[in-house]
Amino acid sequence: MAQFPSKEVAQLSYDYRTLGLGFANLGSMLMVSGIAYDSDKGRGIAGAITAIMTGIAYKTSAEIARHLGAFSKYEENKNHMLRVMRNHRAAAYDAIDAYEGLEIKPQGIIAKDCPDYLLKAATKAWDDAVMLGEKYGYRNAQTTVIAPTGTIGLVMDCDTTGVEPDFALVKFKKLSGGGYFKIINQSVPQALRNLKYPENEVEEIVNYAKGHATLENAPHINFESLSEKGFTSADLQKIEAALPTAFEIGFVFNAFNLGEECLKRLGFKAEDYNNFEWSLLEALGFTHEQIEETNIYICGTMTVEGAPYLKEEHLSVFDCANKCGQTGERYIHYSGHIRMMAAAQPFLSGAISKTINLPNEGTIEQIEDAYFLSWQLGLKACALYRDGSKLSQPLSNKSDKKKKSEESEESKEDQHETALVNMGQLTIDDLLEEVNKRVQNSADTSLKRQLAMIVERRSLPAKRRGFTQKAKINGQALFLRTGEYTDGTLGEIFIDMAKEGATMRSMLNCFAISISIGLQYGVPLEEFVEKFVFTRFEPSGMVEHPNIKTTTSIIDFMFRSLAYEYLGRNDLVHVLDKPEVENLGNNPWDENTPTIGERIPELSEVRVTASSNVKAQTQKSYREAHTKRAGMGIDAVNAASKNMQSDAPACNTCGHITIRSGTCYKCLNCGNSMGCS
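Above: the chain sequence. Below: its structure as tokens.
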């Protein structure tokens, strides 16, 4: 019933009947049991659970084969299949010498690290799986893998995914449609109870980590102090309702939560609360230290390190993949991740999809050692991620807010550097830039008005040239018209749509007028293009246009088209008017390069651009001479690319067509991954 990325994968799945059973929430199970993830006991239990799962799966597969027959390719693979099954059984008994033909010996279940009832169940499962398989064969060549279980793990209310430990005790997940939500590990209270902590101590430790999530009895910032500042009971109820899901208390004291009416009543202006660097709490007179102390009480430290009553020997039970909160220092070493994978891998048909987490300060040598250790322990796959190595990551364990003192020091340094500029050594362009910077930073509004008068509006001729371009965006007709100066530069734009309604038409007209005025006052078209391309709203999708085939919005299409027509921006369109192949090694500067000669060009040397007919004629003879030699290689690349894009969706970030990467998709234009990251 599955869908497959290619015909070959579908055929192999039919011939071998491969399955992908797995589990989730292993890290939470160990934490609730009071067992450290990075411990011999934790690895022993994980190995036994995996052995039971796969052993029972193959036993059941053999029972099905007794009635329905083995998979179609079983007979020609029978000896190898049974050898693999015996190796799985040997790992359950930790019989390292029984492994056949392996240079690297994965570690089996160590009896002293595993509860007796689990060990007996694991060995029994594999005894039955091998015995029945030798008699009847197996219905499935493969039965188990460990998948990431990221989304389905959230749906199942798992604190951890797959074979992973928890990312952090308190974490924040970004949502694809914008925003985030707060995830608190629900296993901590039960783990403390199983470690024999009394209820009052459990409550203290949990509140230390996740906070009290209320203004009641909070230091400095509470119901009483906020009422004195002018907050009404309705305002306080909004704040109280938002605190349980807040990253930090500053996130609920803003216009989005309280509303503009509240902030205006408190005496603040729109330019204040619309500035994302502005802090309402600081504007109300609370100091940085008071805000931090209140934040710890309400939102917690997000770590159990330093919690009252918690014993030192129990800290390892609550260790996570990353440092927890702003003050946490403990985390699971990368070797702990790898050794946990090595405990489960001998009992899996496929590989483990798991992230080996490194802290932000991880080194190249540590990454090298991690891969080497993975090889030594016989892992099938190894994926590392260093915290903060991407501009954006789906899970975070702390905010990126800088301290006010650091920001003020940086601004003072910047002002000091500005004051020391030697005006006599600047060029004319640098001098104008420096004067403009100082005028903009000046409090003298009359000086700013005088500077604004220097820029005059450049009028368009009464009779002007331009073009009208018709396009359809997801079936919605659109007309883009332009007006040009006598030198051919863009001076105005018009946007017309059919069946769009009065409101949409008026908004687009106003937008076109504002852009046109900006162009006439000298704002470079490049600035508008960089600002508005990739803007996303409906209608969006496929485009009927000779050069642009997909777009994220009307605005995105409009500035892609203008950038292509007036700026020569080939990177923002999908099809060129006159594509030609350049850099083929026949230019004058290539004649004295013996390494190029008559060789077939590499793919990295091929660049498609819009070029003149003259240049096309000069290259025609070279192309004809090498069409037969290079054609097969290029065709092979095109065929491979077509196969990888046959069912690929558009990128949800930039709109370009993605390519297949494993069972997921990635975008070669912006680098976005559509999953499995």
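Residues 402-413, 415-419, 592-623, 625-631 have pLDDT under 50 and may be disordered.
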